[in-house]
Design brief:
- The strands form four sheets. Strands 1, 2, 3, 6, 7, 8, 15, 16 and 17 form a nine-stranded mixed beta sheet that branches. A four-stranded antiparallel beta sheet has the order 4-5-19-18, with helices on one face. A four-stranded antiparallel beta sheet has the order 11-13-9-14, covered by helices on one side.
- Helix content is 40%, strand content 25%.
- The protein has 421 residues and is of the alpha+beta class.
- The chain is built from ten helices and 19 strands.
- It binds zinc ion (ZN).
């Protein structure tokens, strides 16, 4: 056996042992008397779960405008009898379920914001067992489910060694750029205490997101002196500089694996057909499964912009001024992976199997990106039984059996994670 083979074999057996350990832990959790009591409590809590789901869904929460929904959720966290219920400086609302002492802190997240702009009709409509409304599943269903799970833990007197921080966080979607979870883990008062993170988001229960797809987004504005298209012909032009930058960008080589991409999504600028523009802009999006490859494509993009500016300043007259590029970061989602060999990932996979799902490990762009990139074990799990997220006919199935089971999956994952290895 070569050294390399030996290392691989040792790693495999360590992973298998860890998987067995996680499997045993999960089995003992779900077959315990207190878990049975918690299941009964989830069952009895179902009408309240639906009520709170409707209340929360009908409070609009567009990106950067989550305040009203946050205030309502803060009250609900208080009613769920969590300790130290508060709003942080970024707008996240949270409370602690105190542990018996000694264990590391686990943070459980569901996001308050939806993708829908102000003015969207968020009134819920029940058709059969489907509750329809924009945002009802992503991620309001998880917010409501989290409350139900907390109450079930109390009703069943479930104890955990470490404290569990339950968070309704802001800024998960789009331009929110994960601002809520970034604040929580990088600046918030629990930043040094949180040792693992479970984010609950819209999506199926067999997918376990343990990889964060990193992205960087820029608004690049090319500026120049401008002038008359005929009278000032020969002066440098932001349009030509930007066109050159786009052409150079289009020729960049990126690997197929780890999947790495780049895009110019929006362009604009100028004032009239017979003017050399003073301003042109483009919005650029770059993504990669690998932090190294994301950095490479990012560095190449920066170089391309510089080269295009230099080229234009050489090609035409700068007598009235030069071309400059203002390169502004507008989005930064870090990438990385919580290895499948990690206890947290194995525990979540074991829970999925116990409930008859076939777990798959996925890469996503979720709140888990931030802890993953910081080296904190983190996953995003789905709350199940819904569809059409980010669309006007978004729905979740409010059948009792399905939601009690979703609550059980979340609870079992939390308990396994809270117990640690
Ligand atoms: Zn979501």
């Amino acid at each position: 056996m070569t050294f390399r083979m030996l290392v691989v074999a040792l790693l495999l057996s360590a992973t298998t042992a860890l998987a067995q350990n996680a499997e045993q832990k999960v089995q003992s959790i779900v077959s315990s008397a207190s878990f049975r009591d918690a299941r009964a409590a989830l069952d009895a809590d179902h009408p309240r779960f639906v009520r709170e789901l409707i209340t929360l869904t009908e409070i609009p929460a567009p990106p950067f405008k989550e305040t009203k929904r946050a205030a309502a959720y803060l009250e609900m966290l208080r009613e769920a009898k969590l300790a130290d219920v508060e709003t942080d400086a970024e707008g996240n609302v949270m409370g602690i379920r105190t542990g018996t002492g000694g264990g590391p802190m686990l943070a459980v997240l569901a996001h308050l914001d939806t993708v829908f702009p102000e003015g969207t009709d968020v009134k819920t409509k029940l058709e059969g067992t489907k509750l329809h409304a924009p945002g009802v599943g992503d991620d309001t269903g998880a917010l409501a489910l989290m409350l139900s799970v907390v109450r079930a833990m109390d009703a069943a007197k479930v104890q955990t060694p470490g404290d569990i921080l339950f968070v309704g966080n802001v800024g998960e979607e789009g331009e929110g750029d994960l601002r809520g979870v970034k604040y929580l883990l990088q600046k918030g008062k629990y930043r040094d205490r949180i040792k693992s993170v479970i984010s609950i988001d819209g999506g199926s229960q067999d997918g376990i997101v343990n990889g964060g797809l990193g992205s960087l987004r820029y608004r690049v504005t090319f500026k120049g002196p401008g002038g008359h298209s005929y009278g000032a012909f020969g002066l440098v032009s932001p349009a030509f500089a930007m066109g050159d930058a786009m052409a150079r960008l289009s020729r960049l080589q990126v690997p197929r694996l780890p999947r790495t991409t780049f895009n110019v999504g929006v362009v604009g600028g100028g004032t009239s057909v017979n003017s050399i523009p003073t301003d042109m802009f483009m919005l650029v999006d770059m993504r990669s499964e690998s932090p190294d490859e994301l950095k490479k494509v990012h560095d190449a993009f920066q170089r391309v912009v510089r080269e295009a500016v230099d080229e234009e300043n050489k090609a035409r007259s700068t007598a009235e001024g030069k071309i400059v590029a203002d390169v502004k970061l507008i989005g930064d989602r870090p990438s990385g992976t919580t290895p499948t060999s990690t206890y947290l990932v194995q525990a979540a996979a074991s829970v999925a199997r116990v409930y008859g799902f076939t777990p798959t490990f996925e890469i996503g762009s979720t709140d888990a990106n931030v802890p993953i990139a910081m080296g904190i074990p983190a996953i995003t799990i789905g709350r199940g039984a819904g569809g059409r997220s980010h669309s006007m006919d978004e729905w979740i199935d409010v059948t009792k059996e399905k939601n009690v089971q979703a609550g059980e999956v979340v609870l079992a994952t939390i308990l396994a994670a809270a117990e640690g290895r």
